Amino acid sequence: MVITKHPHLPAIASLSALSFSTLTLDLELETERLKAEGLRRGGRVICTSTQSGGFDTPAEANVVGKSCSIPGIFLDIQNWFPISCMNHKEALSLMATKDKKQRHAKKRKEIQRRKKAVRFSLPDLLRKEPLLLEALNYRHPLVSCLINKDWDQGMMATIFIFRRASTGLVLSCFHVDLAGIGLKDAWGNYGLTGTDLEEIKSRGAEKGPPLIPCDLSLATTIVYGGIAWAEKWGFTLPKEYKIWLRLLEPVDKTGIDLSLFGKDGEPLLIVNEDELDSFAGEYLYPKILKAKLEAGKDGLPRETLALMGDIKSALITFSRRPEFNEEMEAALKREFGKPKRPDSNDEWVNFQDWFILQHQLEDGKTIAGQFVEHYKNSMSKDVRELILGWGNVIESFFDVKGRKGSGLHMKNLINEREYEVFPTASMTDFEIKPGDFLFARIVPAKGFHIFSGSVAIFEWDGSDDHRAAIYKSAMDFQMKHPSMAFKDNEEKLQKSYESVRRHYEDFVHHFGLDEVFGTGTEILHKYQGFFDYLSFEKKDPESNDQPVAVAFEKKTGKPYQRITVKLPEPVLNSRDVGMLCDPVEGLFFLIDYQRFVDVFNYPDRYLGKRETEEIVMGYLESDSISDTPFRRMAKRLPHNFTRVMTYYQNQKDLSSSRIDDLMREFKPDSFKKLPGIVSILDAEMARLARSAKEETGSAVSRFKGLFKRKGNN
After folding, report:
1. Alpha carbons 101 and 103: distance in angstroms, whole number
2. Top-confidence range, 5-14, 26-35, 128-137, 667-676
3. With contact defined as beta carbons under 8 Å apart, do 366 and 391 qualify?
4. Quick check: 517 and 527 in contact, CB under 8 A?
5. Structural domain boundaries of the chain?
6. What are the two backbone dihedrals, phi and then psi, of residue 657, each rounded to the nearest 5 degrees?
7. E-strand spans in 613-691?
8. Do residues 58 and 85 make contact, with C-beta atoms less than 8 angstroms apart?
9. Which of 188, 356, 396, 494 is 20 to 30 A from 243 via CA?
10. 435-448 tens-digit pLDDT
């Protein structure tokens, strides 16, 4: 273990040996980076809301093109701590302002690229060689089937199959090791002539036993048997064998005869010294992958953890197969700027873990999924469920509550769930005390969890200030990353849905509608009035039907501080602002919303104008504006909505004018919308976070590389 002193924390310990990977955490650095990025784009603005009960915290408003969402903090009158925080919409891109056509074309191109990628299920070779695709067909007339004369004695068969296609002779060749690993190689060619066939025969006679005619049924038995034998014992099959297999008629795998293979029903490995390590590893896979994984009521025994470590090692070895090289190099370049292994071993371990468990390949599967598919015939149910479960990675900041056997009892500070987590390697060399904090990735394992990568340790200095600052950073992170806050915690998710629903009902009760219009100044006045209503007028049933302000003063004896709201300059200076409240999204602001609504109210007046196109297409293409404004228009004015969107379907080559089709194309995330309020369940965590000092808050967030999000996440 390497321990390095941190400028603001007592120590950071790197435990990369524990298992796959984790990514280090830096809450404040990432916050500052996001702020700087937003301001460079002209979008991110900071405003301050003075919270009740003496809790002052900066509230950030995201202004992206014409969209703005404001976070708020709501107080539980009985416990006097923030129980929910309105979610931020992170700025992904600005609405187009200069070249709408170029932006739309780029968006359409990306959509078409994704659709094309889904359609492409053929191997690269067949996509590049369409004539080969036509030639490789077992229905073409058979010209010749050859095999080496001593195949049965040497238990090594080389089979040549020639068929006649429109492009000439087409060849598939299979090299099968009947004693050891089954199908060892496969290759072929097309556009050949009879002369080529005779040359292959003569070369075979010169270099070894001659090629002799072979019955096609025997060739089929040997080739398909070689495939089944390799799968049974977990040996790697040639990368493109399925391409050349197209010259052989498919067979029922359940009826394949394996009596020709191995010795006494097991592989007899005949390999050279250079191949020994590779084959020995694969030969051990069946013993590992067929294992039954035991678990007790109190945790995972040492033998099971050791087996899980071996399974992880097998996954890493599998990920280094040649067919994954191109994908890995591309992912490395995206992550580190060059297609090479990073200098930091921790970063390399972290990258591998993400690449194996979470990165989606072209076929939509992960490497872990392909591993399960490849070894499905030699894998126990326990192991299969274990590996597939590892796709549910939880990457977070944890509060160590105590030790449990060889594992740790920890609380996830992002989703507020508690976990019992075990390492696949010994942790006796690492001093981890209750109260310390870890940043780690964990994966499920037989009802418990195991570490999946390097683990960063942050020692607690024993002070409430230190703990309060970390809790506050965790709560801020929940606001910015609600998907991580809700992951694996259904109670938190449902309570958050309920919180935003109540907030929506309060909004409609106060205004009579779920949206209001006005200038920026007018909207600010209405926004302030709404918060005054929540504090001074709305009666809280949990506080004897008293307003929040009255109940607070009675309970604490302190004067209630009015919540003062502000709007960012782009919103405040706009002459057309909509303040909308949605029962799932919560409250947000849209610039030019009245004009957007007018287009659907009066299409004859507005269609055909450039400004109208900029507003409608800008709303549609913006990644920061949800589906809500479009769905409201489709529900209120269905005929006009169809007319407007059909117009732009013809003008902009949209795929459809139907609301669901449009949202699926331009706003796919709207179909899995998360609540706009993140409820905080832990009263102690919220209490301490409220007391955090800004100067100590900065101390906890100087972690290295906050939650690096890879390609698909």
Report:
1. 5
2. 667-676
3. yes
4. no
5. 42-93+490-690, 139-249
6. -115, 0
7. 677-679
8. no
9. 356
10. 999 989 999 999 99
pTM over 0.85? The answer is no
pLDDT digits (tens, 9 = 90+) for 319-375: 888 788 889 999 999 988 898 888 888 788 889 999 999 999 988 899 999 999 988
First to last CA, the chain: 29
Residue 319: alpha-carbon gap to chain centroid? 18
Out of 18-32, 392-406, 500-514, the most confident range is 500-514
Distance CA 610, CA 572 (A): 25
Residue 318 CB coordination number (10 Å): 20
Q: Hey, what are 266's tokens?
A: 């097991």
By the 8 A CB rule, do 476 and 397 touch? Answer: no
The region that residue 408 occupies, defined by phi over 0 for left and psi between -120 and 50 for alpha, beta otherwise, is beta
Residue corresponding to tokens 């020709």: 260
386 vs 187: CA distance, rounded Å = 35
Q: What dihedral do alpha carbons 519, 522, 526, 532 form, nearest 10°?
A: 140
Q: Kind of pairing, strands 539-540 and 515-518? A: unpaired
Count of residues in the chain: 713
Angstrom distance (rounded) from CA 553 to CA 561:
10
